[in-house]
Design goal:
105 residues; 3 helices; single chain; alpha+beta
Length: 105
């Protein structure tokens, strides 16, 4: 089953992020997406532009989110010469609405 077939379930895995790490993860989400410099609608999701210094935080966010939201696909692109960093989040039908709620967009 592939996401392109549209059959992957849009479901989170409760408890995938250890309880002692959850508060920090949710604080990171709020800060990162409040500081995003741009947001674009893309097919099956969103692309977000960040400053190049956000790489470590984006990697930490991605590591946690992939555990609890296995239906999401993540693409991190760092533009050359200190340019911006792009994070693309995509998934099956309903992913945009999920991201809007999860990230408070």
């Amino acid at each position: 089953m592939t996401m392109s077939e549209g059959r992957m379930p849009l479901a989170c895995v409760p408890g995938a992020i250890p309880a002692e790490e959850r508060a920090g993860h949710f604080e990171l989400i709020q800060r990162l997406f409040r500081e995003a410099r741009e947001r674009r609608l893309i097919e099956n999701g969103y692309a977000f532009r960040f400053g190049s210094s956000a790489l470590v935080d984006i990697a930490r966010f991605t590591e946690n989110e992939r555990r609890c939201c296995p239906f999401l696909a993540f693409v991190i692109e760092q533009e050359p010469m200190g340019g911006p960093l792009w994070l693309r989040l995509t998934g099956p039908a309903g992913t945009r609405e999920f991201l809007e709620a999860e990230l408070r967009l």
